[in-house]
Design a protein that fits this description.
By secondary structure, this protein is α+β, with helices and mostly antiparallel strands. The protein has six helices and ten strands, in the order αβββααααββββββαβ. Helix 1 packs antiparallel against helix 2. It is elongated and about 55 Å long. One of its GO terms (molecular function) is NADP+ nucleosidase activity. This is DUF4237 domain-containing protein.
């Protein structure tokens, strides 16, 4: 609120200065002698076109007003764009379309066929299970905390507290519930560095555990086998 008030005050000050500048230029005009299309101010060596000077001054001040008003719009959170008819038609064909607000926020990502099928909206997941380079076998020790954004039906998890952007998650995960688990006994996982994806930097660490047949364990299965237990859940937005 304080920021918006300051921006509004600044906008008022600019407009006030515009009015003052106009009056000043009028006074200059009254103190000039016409010399063809050029005017010379009495008592000085200043020569110039009052009309051009007024136009330049007005343009400069209007630019300042425009910048202030844009800052006010940003400060108030008002949307300055809207979804085009073509984009709306595309999103109607998606199985799980994002809200218009979210689409506009991440338009470049949603419009990139590298990440989303443009006809169905299906997610194109990163290759190599999202690992950057080759993952390695490692052991998670009893008592360690791990976490995950998204329900227990998923398979990927990380050391507790990895920054969100380093996880390179799909955009719908922004609203996902956040789960923390505790390791109940030592067990082996495959882990490694997270590759950048969805225009997010990655760089964090992720784990998955495989069955003997090559399928991944879900978090729910790890709980059922008493390898981990739920510690807390934080509801998403």
């Amino acid at each position: 609120m304080k920021t918006n008030n300051k921006l509004n005050d600044a906008g008022f000050a600019i407009k006030k200065q515009f009015a003052k500048s106009t009056d000043t230029l009028t006074d200059i005009a009254r103190g000039t002698e016409a010399q063809g299309s050029v005017l010379a101010r009495k008592g000085t060596d200043f020569h110039g076109s009052v009309k051009d000077a007024h136009k330049a001054s007005k343009s400069k001040i209007q630019d300042s007003i425009s910048r202030i008003e844009k800052d006010i719009e940003k400060g108030s959170g008002r949307a300055v764009k809207e979804v085009s008819k073509a984009d709306k038609a595309k999103l109607e064909g998606w199985a799980y379309p994002p809200s218009e607000e979210k689409y506009l926020k991440y338009k470049e990502v949603y419009d990139n066929p590298k990440y989303y099928d443009q006809e169905t909206g299906n997610i194109n997941w990163p290759p190599n299970n999202g690992f950057e380079g080759e993952p390695v076998k490692m052991k998670l020790e009893e008592g360690r905390l791990i976490d995950r954004y998204g329900g227990p039906g998923g398979s990927f998890f990380s050391p507790e507290g990895i920054p969100y952007e380093q996880r390179a998650l799909a955009l719908h995960s922004d609203e996902a519930d956040y789960y923390v688990y505790r390791v109940l006994e030592d067990f082996e996982v495959t882990g490694g560095k997270i590759a950048p994806w969805f225009d997010r930097p990655g760089g964090g660490i992720q784990y998955i555990k495989y069955h003997d047949n090559g399928k991944t364990y879900s978090i729910e299965e790890l709980v059922q086998e008493e390898l981990i237990e739920l510690v807390s859940v934080k509801k998403g937005v």
